[in-house]
Amino acid sequence: MPLQNRVLPTGEIVAHPARGMLMGNRGCIHRPDRTLGVTRWRTKMWISCVLEWRGWHRDVMPPGRWTALFFLDEVTALAAGHRPCGYCRRADHLWFAESWRAGRGLSSRPSAAEMDIELHAERVESRTRRKVTRIAVAGDLPDGVIISHAGALGLLCDGSMLPWSLEGYGAPVLVGTRSVVTLLTPPSIVAALRADYRPMVHPSAGVTSLRPFPA
């Protein structure tokens, strides 16, 4: 039985056998029996990390410490509101923070804590604790965001939507530049993507405007 630790672009956490290409955490959200209760975060520091780092091997659900979560790719992690880790993904973290600064027109690069505070307000509604989505026009969005359109979730890239699944992306579907879509990726991350940041994408996407994962 797979653990409930796969994150959807909607921010929901489900059980699925595929591991994904990135991991992360939101604090310890599992119970002693390694199942999830109603809590979906214990901290505003939602990060995404590489699967392998310096040969470390860790339990994915150590008692009372942290709950490892897994993402199909970075595009998915960003849509759910997870930024690059400042430790195992230091170069990406700095690139992301600088793109955040440029995209928001700030005079200095924000700290991790500053980004976490703003992101938390953008990704979940404080009263209901549900994912916040926004209406947007497809042509106004940068490559690398996740949208909902015509009843499906997908990666917006090169003027098309690539249907998203837990195992990868489907064949691209053309989306008109004037099409009204539901945007899942938080606004500050959208601004960073528009400025310069290029997230890593699952190989099934087959796109060149985003980054492939290292071999």
Description:
It is a single chain. This protein is α+β, with helices and mostly antiparallel strands and about 220 residues long. The protein has a domain at about 5-125. Helices cover about 20% and strands about 25% of the residues. The chain contains four helices and 15 strands. The strands form four sheets. Strands 7, 8, 9, 10, 11, 12 and 13 form a seven-stranded antiparallel β-sheet that branches. Strands 5-3-4-6 form a four-stranded mixed β-sheet. Strands 1-2 form a two-stranded antiparallel sheet. β10 and β11 (about 170) form a beta hairpin. α2 (about 90-105) crosses α4 (about 185-195). The longest helix has 15 residues, at about 90-105. The chain is globular, with a radius of gyration of 16 Å. The relative contact order is 0.17. The model has no long low-confidence stretch (mean pLDDT about 95).
**How many DSSP-defined strands?**
15
Helix content: 10-25%
Largest sheet: 7 strands, antiparallel
Computed CA radius of gyration, to the nearest angstrom: 16 Å
The gist of it:
Helices cover 20% and strands 24% of the residues. The protein is of the alpha+beta class and 215 residues long. The chain has a domain at 4-123.
Topology:
Elements: E1 4-7, E2 13-15, E3 22-25, E4 47-49, E5 69-71, H1 74-80, E6 83-84, H2 90-104, H3 112-123, E7 134-137, E8 145-149, E9 152-157, E10 160-165, E11 168-169, E12 173-174, E13 180-183, H4 187-195, E14 200-201, E15 211-212
Parallel strand pairs: 4-6, 14-15
Antiparallel strand pairs: 1-2, 3-4, 3-5, 7-13, 8-9, 8-13, 9-10, 10-11, 10-12
Helix pairs in contact: 2-4
